[in-house]
Write a structure and sequence with these properties.
The chain folds into two domains: 78 residues, Rna Polymerase Sigma Factor, Chain: A; 80 residues, Winged helix-like DNA-binding domain superfamily/Winged helix DNA-binding domain (Arc Repressor Mutant, subunit A, Orthogonal Bundle). Helix content is 75%, strand content 0%. The protein has seven helices and no strands. α1 runs antiparallel to α2 and α2 packs across α3. The longest helix has 29 residues.
């Protein structure tokens, strides 16, 4: 990599690094694993940087999806995610944002990796059905099936506390 290419790559990481890390954390429930996956994706990108890819961000996003799916296949080798405590959340806005993020992580952690990927790509990232299928490397029907099952699991999880409260009240 030449000095100019290295400077361009560094600028790319500065500009898009935070968004890519958020994507990685949505796809992979453990923050440390998500950071490792992003590092791996960026390392893989460096090998192709000199080719002037049309969309380096799309390349990293696709690599993150693949790494998340690979991680799901090796789930028995990966430690369960831990509950991180954010002591910096002092104002109500930060507390609410932290609580919402924790609830989103909790709901996404209920899903198997393929369903989680489908929900993140389709619902959170707003990709079309065909874009989601292409990113997952599956057919549109398989992507829709994974999305449907994932959303059903999330709906059931959201409905469960309300139904438990209704049963306990006279």
């Amino acid at each position: 990599m030449t000095d100019d290419e290295e400077a361009d790559f560094s600028q790319f990481v500065r500009d898009r690094g935070d968004a890519l890390l958020r994507r990685a954390r949505l796809l992979i429930p453990d923050d440390g694993e998500a950071e490792d996956a992003l590092q791996t994706a960026l390392l893989r990108l460096t090998r192709h940087w000199s080719r002037q890819l049309d969309s380096p961000q799309a390349y990293v996003q696709r690599t993150l999806v693949n790494l998340a799916a690979d991680r799901g296949r090796r789930r028995h080798l990966v430690a369960a995610p831990s509950q991180a405590v954010d002591t910096a959340a002092t104002s109500s806005d930060h507390a609410e944002a932290h609580a919402a993020r924790a609830r989103l992580d909790e709901l996404l952690s209920l899903l198997p990796p393929r369903q989680r990927i489908a929900v993140v790509l389709r619902v959170i990232d707003g990709l079309s059905e065909s874009e989601t299928a292409a990113a997952m490397g599956t057919s549109v029907g398989t992507a829709k099936s994974n999305l449907s099952r994932g959303l059903r699991t999330i709906r059931e999880a959201l409905a469960a506390p309300a139904s438990c409260l209704e049963r306990t009240q006279p």
